[in-house]
From TrEMBL:
It comes from Achromobacter aloeverae. Residues 16-110 form the Succinate dehydogenase/fumarate reductase N-terminal domain. This is succinate dehydrogenase. SUPFAM superfamilies: 2Fe-2S ferredoxin-like. Gene3D superfamilies: 3.10.20.30. InterPro entries: 2Fe-2S_ferredoxin-like_sf, Beta-grasp_dom_sf, SDH/FRD_Iron-Sulfur, Succ_DH/fum_Rdtase_N. Its cofactor is [2Fe-2S] cluster; [3Fe-4S] cluster. GO terms for biological process: aerobic respiration; respiratory electron transport chain. Pfam families: Fer2_3 (PF13085). The lineage of its organism: Bacteria, Pseudomonadati, Pseudomonadota, Betaproteobacteria, Burkholderiales. Belongs to the succinate dehydrogenase/fumarate reductase iron-sulfur protein family.
Length: 128
């Protein structure tokens, strides 16, 4: 049994390298270190960042870990995931990005509803 403090500390955090930005501008990557116990899922980790570090980080979710709303889709290490069901491992480093095939709103938030289903900004708005 090895309880060396440095090993415990190394495994006690998760690193999230999050792509941030708005449409029509170059994006930046911001790195956040999250306590592993606060980030069992990617959504948990992002919510921890927004609560404790940076309340400007934008991402979308509605049901929190029920996997019912389907609004938390984003990219984790290049794969499309639901943030609420994507499990994170202590001591690991992850790249987080918005969906590449949807219009970017800001940071990790994309316009996921078809334009005809949006209240404003859809094609029907152009016909007024
Ligand atoms: S938060 Fe609702 S499906 Fe992920």
């Amino acid at each position: 049994m090895n309880n060396a403090p440095s090993e415990a500390r190394d495994g006690a955090t998760i690193t999230l390298r999050v792509q941030r930005g708005v449409p029509q501008q170059a994006h930046a990557v911001q790195t956040y270190t999250v306590p592993a116990e606060a980030a069992a899922s990617l959504l948990d980790g992002l919510r921890w960042v927004r609560t404790h570090v940076d309340d400007t980080l934008a991402f979308r979710y509605a049901c929190i870990n029920a996997n019912a709303c389907k609004e938390c889709m984003m990219r984790l290490d290049g794969k499309t995931v639901y943030a609420c069901t994507a499990r994170l491992e202590p001591g690991h480093d992850y790249a987080v990005a918005p969906l590449p095939n949807k219009p970017l709103v800001r940071d990790l938030m994309t316009a996921i509803a078809p334009s005809k289903e949006r209240l404003f900004g859809g094609e029907e708005d152009d016909e007024r």
